[in-house]
Amino acid sequence: ISCYLSRSANTQFSVRRSARDITNMSQQAANGLPCRGKVLNLDNMNPNVRRVEYAVRGAIVQRALQIDKELKEGVKKPFTEVIKANIGDAHAMGQKPITFLRQVLALCAYPDLLDDNKFPDDSKQRARRILEACGGHSIGAYSSSQGIECIRQDVARYIEKRDDGISSDPDNIYLATGASDAIVTMLKLLVCGKGRDRTGVMISIPQYPLYSAALADLAAVQINYYLDEDKCWSLDIAELKRAVTAARQHCNPRVICIINPGNPTGQVQSRQCIEDVIRFAKEEHLFLMADEVYQDNVYAEGCKFHSFKRVLFEMGPEYSTTVEMASFHSTSKCYMGECGFRGGYMEVINMDPEVKAQLTKLVSVRLCPPVPGQALLDLVVNPPQPDEPSYDKFMKERTAVLAALAEKAGLTEQIFNTVPGITCNPVQGAMYTFPRITLPQKAIDKAKAEGQVPDMFYCMKLLEEEGICLVPGSGFGQREGTFHFRMTILPPTEKLKFVLQKISDFHIRFTQEFS
Amino acid sequence: ISCYLSRSANTQFSVRRSARDITNMSQQAANGLPCRGKVLNLDNMNPNVRRVEYAVRGAIVQRALQIDKELKEGVKKPFTEVIKANIGDAHAMGQKPITFLRQVLALCAYPDLLDDNKFPDDSKQRARRILEACGGHSIGAYSSSQGIECIRQDVARYIEKRDDGISSDPDNIYLATGASDAIVTMLKLLVCGKGRDRTGVMISIPQYPLYSAALADLAAVQINYYLDEDKCWSLDIAELKRAVTAARQHCNPRVICIINPGNPTGQVQSRQCIEDVIRFAKEEHLFLMADEVYQDNVYAEGCKFHSFKRVLFEMGPEYSTTVEMASFHSTSKCYMGECGFRGGYMEVINMDPEVKAQLTKLVSVRLCPPVPGQALLDLVVNPPQPDEPSYDKFMKERTAVLAALAEKAGLTEQIFNTVPGITCNPVQGAMYTFPRITLPQKAIDKAKAEGQVPDMFYCMKLLEEEGICLVPGSGFGQREGTFHFRMTILPPTEKLKFVLQKISDFHIRFTQEFS
């Protein structure tokens, strides 16, 4: 058959033309239509996009949503609801919004309420200030692409306070559609070169799969460095050296990404470790990306959040004037958990001014980050002060959320570690546990026979039998031959206990079944 | 000097190393530091990003912001404010938000207000419905990546009603962070191949520069087809044929993008023209992207918005079952003008189910579109009905906005066409005029001598002398030797008259000065 598609017979994709296409074409030919497949199909779409994977919302979550629907349609299951412990989605887990934040947002959305005496004065004052900074005094106007100037000023002051006075320049702050947006934008700027000169980006294993997904999309080279599970997921400089040295054989390593507190691993890095990483970045001439979205989520005794910016500046001008860095923060985590607003920012340090101009140009193409998210961020970095009417309630709500998280972090570690075959590092920070699970050889064999990775097989079985949705460790990366899952500690305490018990029972049952 | 940077001496960028780098390196060497430039500089950053241009927020807007600051600092100018007529930012131009939309958004942000009898019942009912569809009944929870299901259902029903019953499947609707986000995502899916097999994308000239920016970022091939200024910016199929035929010599044309009503050109396409485009897309085996964000902004007598979807289905199954298409809509334009919320959607038609699964995966990496923007979209597609308490006020506000825009569209054409050297097509729809300006040869020569494109020179002079910010036609593309600018018609009527007069006077003065 003479066929339009043969035009592209010399493309890199044509060899992969599938039986499906041929069927498509034959059907069309039978209908008397020109013999052509879809303009856009799996074989001729962007190959980088095909390589993207994002486990946190992957196959297991698709199945969880299906089961949810089946339950609603009255299908009988051994459980009455699906508990989605796969993602750090605080409000979905029942955490209540912080009153002050939502009052100001309502005032910004509908300024007629500024006359309402139900709202405290400080919430009105904050709303007025935000509205005055908006075009036409409306959050419905575009903002400047870098974000509203007075909010960037507030962010800079917040960072200065956090870092005991180390100065922050509002011009170095870029507001974003959540931290994810800023991270992808920064990676995009950094990627160039072909073949052996292609940009390599160092990421931890286990990692948060936004990184691997963005690198696949950008066709950058992913350089894995492994965290040390036996030392509470700590970061070892010798391992960084090993990884970068090996990578220099086949790519151009230019970036190191660190997540602190860790996702999915929950560790909080020591000041010493951060210093070592900064020294390493300087020695190896790497751009440092510090994902610090869990900076307020630190629970463990003796642990403290140290910002990369602060350590960098405390190391003196040899470092503070040379090491190029971006730090990321978000409104989705910490005590507020406002994921749906997609608020966040990055601070860039020592960035070449010409590159900064390019960054500003790049973000302008998408016009601006969502203004409600910008407004929310402003409240997070500029919360009620002790002399203001909303202070007491705000502090009470904030403290309650963080105290509950700390309790749940302890509980999780404690219960999992009583189960033979589950070992769990302390959840020092962030919102997840990443316990190691021992799987019987028979289960591993069964999974492989079914074409599944063993921890996916385990998690799917847990989902089908108990209605609990976790993410398999393979979605984050793990050392060959080890298996894990990620679970958020966000469910309310009683529900979390229930979930932990259900998983424990399942694990014992699973082990017996495959022994 | 032996230098770290020489490692990458064989990259494609090293040849462009600039004097600046050398200076950087020498300075560092003098300080006793290792001789290395920035990790990230203009020469080794992503070359695609460097090629991106976005005139709507380009150099002229940067200068406008500076002038704004100078005015605030008390610098004397021949004007007291900068009027930013460069962008379709309705609220910034003084348009008031629609009450109903903002009431519901306030209720969603702060559900305590659901007890407040100040809010009409239908606004409460809408807010409750949205909240019930959110995780934990909070707009602070992540939504599904494709967008909240009941909102996608509402969008589908809205499309069905718009298209007189042609069915729409909620599974084909993807909510997005403004239409821009959806357009970029769709283009990203479509781009593949190398060299002569690289994906080519047909865009109109003049175009909205989001398209050229996204194509530069994706390193796709931009294929220009010219609109016919002499025929009110209409689209000529012969011109499409010319463009695609020429392009096949050097790339693989796979996509055609259409903006209707037009941006920046304000034309509204006839039903016949849309049919011709669909036939062309089918014949040439192109994916059709229909940017229809101005679908409610149609002003001219005898003009009507015809959706590509509807025309496609009215052409019968030969077309409706084969032509692959995506249509885009937004909450930023029409009567609501809520740009800051970044709401929008796309509907995909005849998309390969496997590609759809890839699309769903791709959007999941960014978690979800901002939920306040999704909520807003729900209200736009599901506005108050005649039997509901908010209906009268809603309709009054909506009609007033659209009537004022229609008046301003007429006014703009009329006033500009009285000025010798300015010719202006009717503003049939959208929010812009794109008049042609005749520039004296002396002005063209002067601009070239100063290294500026002539219409940038003109617009910069207008900005400095009158405080009016327009975008030069070169930012959108125009036929060689012609010059234009884009101006939004959004300023309030009296201010618009003032602006039109100022530009007219300036044009006459400019022409005299350079004659």
From TrEMBL, chains A, B:
<dbReference type="Pfam" id="PF00155">
    <property type="entry name" value="Aminotran_1_2"/>
</dbReference>
<dbReference type="InterPro" id="IPR015424">
    <property type="entry name" value="PyrdxlP-dep_Trfase"/>
</dbReference>
<dbReference type="GO" id="GO:0004021">
    <property type="term" value="F:L-alanine:2-oxoglutarate aminotransferase activity"/>
</dbReference>
<keyword id="KW-0032">Aminotransferase</keyword>
<dbReference type="InterPro" id="IPR015422">
    <property type="entry name" value="PyrdxlP-dep_Trfase_small"/>
</dbReference>
<comment type="pathway">
    <text>Amino-acid degradation; L-alanine degradation via transaminase pathway; pyruvate from L-alanine: step 1/1.</text>
</comment>
<keyword id="KW-0663">Pyridoxal phosphate</keyword>
<dbReference type="GO" id="GO:0030170">
    <property type="term" value="F:pyridoxal phosphate binding"/>
</dbReference>
<dbReference type="InterPro" id="IPR015421">
    <property type="entry name" value="PyrdxlP-dep_Trfase_major"/>
</dbReference>
<comment type="subunit">
    <text>Homodimer.</text>
</comment>
<keyword id="KW-0808">Transferase</keyword>
<comment type="similarity">
    <text>Belongs to the class-I pyridoxal-phosphate-dependent aminotransferase family. Alanine aminotransferase subfamily.</text>
</comment>
<dbReference type="GO" id="GO:0042853">
    <property type="term" value="P:L-alanine catabolic process"/>
</dbReference>
<dbReference type="GO" id="GO:0005737">
    <property type="term" value="C:cytoplasm"/>
</dbReference>
<feature type="domain" description="Aminotransferase class I/classII large">
    <location>
        <begin position="115"/>
        <end position="503"/>
    </location>
</feature>
<comment type="function">
    <text>Catalyzes the reversible transamination between alanine and 2-oxoglutarate to form pyruvate and glutamate.</text>
</comment>
<dbReference type="InterPro" id="IPR045088">
    <property type="entry name" value="ALAT1/2-like"/>
</dbReference>
<protein>
    <recommendedName>
        <fullName>alanine transaminase</fullName>
        <ecNumber>2.6.1.2</ecNumber>
    </recommendedName>
</protein>
<dbReference type="InterPro" id="IPR004839">
    <property type="entry name" value="Aminotransferase_I/II_large"/>
</dbReference>
